[in-house]
Amino acid sequence: MTWSRSMYRATACCVLLAAIGCSSAVPPSLPAVKSALVEYGETGAWQADVAAVSARAERFLERNAGRVERPALVLDIDETSLSNWPQQLESNFCYVASDFQEWVLRAEAEALPGVLELYRTATRLGVAVFFITGRPEEEREATERNLRAVGYESWAGLHLRSPGGDRKTFKTSVRRQITEDGYTILANVGDQESDLVGGYAERTFKIPNPFYEVP
Questions:
Q1: pTM of the prediction?
Q2: Helices (H), 67-151
């Protein structure tokens, strides 16, 4: 059976409803959900959906980059600028912090093509690019190496979370600082709602990620 995008959405809705205790939901089995996720990631459907969102962000930058003096673009990293798909498959969609850190330090994640193209459009337009990630500061060297290896050659800022930093306010506080430094953040792009809430950006663009959720 080939899963359509509407079927993926329906599956996600069933899982969510079951998780919050709605008795009317009839969730699929866990193996069926994992099979759907694998097909979504392996067939190119996920990458196509990411590219569609990225293209909307590109058009927004093209229309607005010349409107402000210091335009900026904010990008998340994991499942936005970089894909951790091999590690997700290897872990069977289970998150173990030590295993994920080992993967990050290998610096082998690939770029999501649509977001890489958005990055290139931003640099062509003279829009400053800032990466804001929940990765800890100790992973900076590997993160920089990985970004450059796949085509993100330069940036105006790369912000990683300091030890003990508040996950819930970190990204908002960085965006606030960017605006206080005189930039106008035209677009903020990420795969988690927590990447996008808190303001300090004219527009937000949500990258699809049915694989996991960060509160």
A1: 0.86
A2: 85-90, 97-106, 113-124, 140-149
